């Protein structure tokens, strides 16, 4: 594969961030003959330090040595580091190329890549695509999920990759082009990283298709207003394949008489909704997107059907934890934005005690008001600062309780819930005020529920 990176053959590769993507890139960089230096402003986890030591890769943590970093020919920035970080600003001012792991690693593989992005549903869809493909194809899962894409490329074992891609990873691409790209949906998220400008965030998501050609495919939600608006005003080269639960689609996926129907190149796939392993509108859309990918890659219909029937979703996404005194406890810690929580509340069928809160990324809670009014009997706040949540829902909920941590939140929810109710952790916020990640938050929730 042609690559700008290889043409320029920069000698010094500096990697900012010593986590999964950083260490994977370091290993691949060493393998490709770069002089590699890893720098992390925080502390590098022991397991990653060991990988660096075993590969004789130089690193530092607990701060950046800017003199050394600024001599780089190429910099790979981990997705969690914002563009406005002083070291990144200094690099860009100096004209050093700053890219993402996805851009770096894709230059060293000829594998078929399926790239999946969107504000919500991308982890579920990526995991489901991987499950659909792995029986018939030699495939790996990577990107924002699972093992580092760069590390897997360095091992050279795979002919196909399914990559979950965040807007931050797409911000750092130059030539990266997946053969099949999927945009699950758009809703305001991470606006703190996009100067609170929703259009900048949307443009970032659409970068997934900017380098695709006429031989590639772009799969998208045709019911999404913002996606349609963008497509109406921008040209893309890839073949567009929509999916919809509201209208019939000639070439793509739609619903008819409670069946998913996918039509591609005169090939028709049908599947009854009732047999899907996970239910709910958003899961129907995830299944449509994933099945469309599988159909394009010529996976057998029988394999697709069996896989969709068996698939039970992903951890921390509407994950049923336990039933205690006939109260169901559900872990939706992965709901880090308002739209994800909208789906969660929408799927509730019993009175709900809702645990919400964390680091607000510029949230507008107004779209949740009708659902909270209809479904939520009590709100348990789980954040360092809950003022915005109290202001948003104070008029429609009689019961709003503030708590200081997960154990207390779960105990309070237990007291507020009656038989046949649901306790739902769906925070609509990032987790970094009280937890290390949404996974940490979800696991602490499950642990607290098990100790009730």
Task: Describe the protein's architecture and organization.
By secondary structure, this protein is of the alpha/beta class. It has 3 domains: 10-99, 3-Layer(aba) Sandwich (Rossmann fold); 106-310, 3-Layer(aba) Sandwich (UDP-N-acetylmuramoyl-L-alanine:D-glutamate ligase), CATH 3.40.1190; 319-450, Mur ligase, C-terminal domain (Protein-Tyrosine Phosphatase, Chain A). 35% of the residues lie in helices and 22% in strands. The protein contains 18 helices and 20 strands. The chain has helices at residues 4-8, 20-31, 46-54, 66-69, 86-93, 101-106, 122-133, 149-155, 167-171, 198-206, 225-233, 281-296, 301-310, 338-346, 369-375, 387-393, 406-416, 438-450, and strands at residues 12-16, 35-40, 58-61, 74-77, 97-99, 112-117, 139-143, 160-164, 180-183, 217-221, 239-243, 252-256, 259-264, 267-272, 319-324, 327-331, 352-356, 376-382, 400-403, 422-425. The strands form 4 sheets. The chain has a 6-stranded parallel beta sheet, with helices on one face. Helix 2 packs parallel to helix 8 (149-155), helix 7 packs across helix 12 and helix 17 packs across helix 18 (438-450). The longest helix has 16 residues, at 281-296. The N and C termini lie far apart (56 Å). The mean pLDDT is 92.
